[in-house]
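note to self: dont lose this again. the chain is below, predicted strucutre after it. 347 aa total, dont forget to put it in the shared folder this time
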Amino acid sequence: MTTTIPAYAAPAAKAPLERTTVSRRAVGEHDVLIDIKFAGICHSDIHQVRDEWGGARFPMVPGHEITGLVAEVGPGVTRYAVGDRVGVGCFVDSCRECANCLAGEEQYCLKGFTATYNSVGRDGEPTYGGYSTQLVVDENYALRIPEGIGLDVAAPLLCAGITLYSPLKHWNAGPGRKVAVVGMGGLGHMGVKIAAALGADVTVLSQSLSKKADAERFGAHHYYATSDADTFEQLAGHFDLIVNTVSVNLDLDAYLSLLALDGTLVNVGAPEHPASLNVFSLLGGRRSLAGSNIGGIRETQEMLEFCAEHGLGSEIELIAADQVNEAYDRVVASDVRYRFVIDTATI
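---
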């Protein structure tokens, strides 16, 4: 037996989002029903609503930065109780059997994870995301939101936070390491906060100096404008790790030249077009070009605890649901500091 709930959905590619209704499955043995309180707007929501990555399914209810309260639990649930503060990130299921799932790296499930939206669940039904009032999810794919983080500023941590925490941890950002974050948007500002809290020497590389004061407030030690050609000469061979958060194509050779011996450039932004580079940019300093995709359930919970310990949350602009189309345009225009979050009570 399903339940019909209000939501905001895109009826077709590039169409404005509009208020509608969707169905949620009945609460099963190991499910929790979440009353959604806040849903962050990720740039990937826009890419998918506008079918810029291909394979979009419509109608589409975006949203994979979800926080709320448990409203009901299935009879077999052991992790959560009614009233608990919880979140849901970019996926709601995986095969649970492959080596990566068993290692707690469900985001790299060899059979493919079930995305929170624009996907098809193991029951054959489409998934609908957080721009809605309720969500039913298996307890193993829900996260506990620690006390001390507001549910509003915690919502973007479920994607933006873990997207930066995972590579920073994996490539050992910390004391004695020089880390650069490319871009100071919804992803980048969390990268600055987390890298600084990990103890790294943090540099922001942004197109202009307009966000320098913010970057310093978030913990950055240095800030350079990439529009200034001198930046690339001045910082040549400087960094141990560069995390690229932007979703436009960059001159990879130029950024690789900023790496020290054995340095790594990690991409977490997803440009629309294929990238290219000169292999000699890698050979010259035994440099690496890598990618990273969100994080598993275990690491996402670790990230939430880390952010709570260090008092970290996303910088947000809270909006009503009927402002979502305007918010999309503003994200594309880089006119947000730094993450829009929908108050789902307004749906």
